[in-house]
Amino acid sequence: MVTGTLLLRIRLHGCRSLKEKRRPRQMLRDRIRSRFKVAVSEVADQDTLNLLCLGVATVGPDPGPVQQVLQDVATMVSESGVGELIEDSVELHRR
Questions:
Q1: Is residue 11 within 8 Å of 86, Cβ to Cβ?
Q2: Residue 91: inside a domain, yes or no?
Q3: Domain, as residue range, for 41
Q4: Is 94 part of a structural domain of the chain?
Q5: What separation in angstroms does the CA of 66 have from each of 1, 31, 38, 91, 95?
Q6: Tens of pLDDT along 2-31?
């Protein structure tokens, strides 16, 4: 079994309050969950207005498909137009 995690740091433009940050966070979280069937959560920088840090996790029998799903998530986020993807880092762990 292989577990894979993806850390996404996204710079949001135009957020002037935490309430305005909620919309892109929920939209990305819901879109990623429904399209890729992975776990998603905001994992850091909750009080920073212009920075969204999402953690994505999935499991699978082999590293190839797990890595591909996480890379597809990063590609979808970068093409979503929600903000500027400034970091995406993938970690795979074999159990």
A1: yes
A2: no
A3: 2-86
A4: no
A5: 10, 18, 10, 10, 13
A6: 999 999 999 988 778 888 788 888 899 999
CA distance 55 to 44: 9
Maximum pairwise Cα distance, the chain: 43
Reduced to 3 states, what is the DSSP secondary structure of residue 55? Answer: strand
> How far, in Å, CA of 40 to CA of 88, rounded?
14
Q: At what angle do helices 63-79 and 18-36 cross, to 10 degrees?
A: 140
Q: Which two tokens stand for residue 31?
A: 């879109």
Distance (Å, rounded) from C-alpha 31 to C-alpha 33? 6
82: domain CATH number? Answer: 3.30.70.1120
pTM, entire model: 0.85
DSSP structural state of residue 35:
H
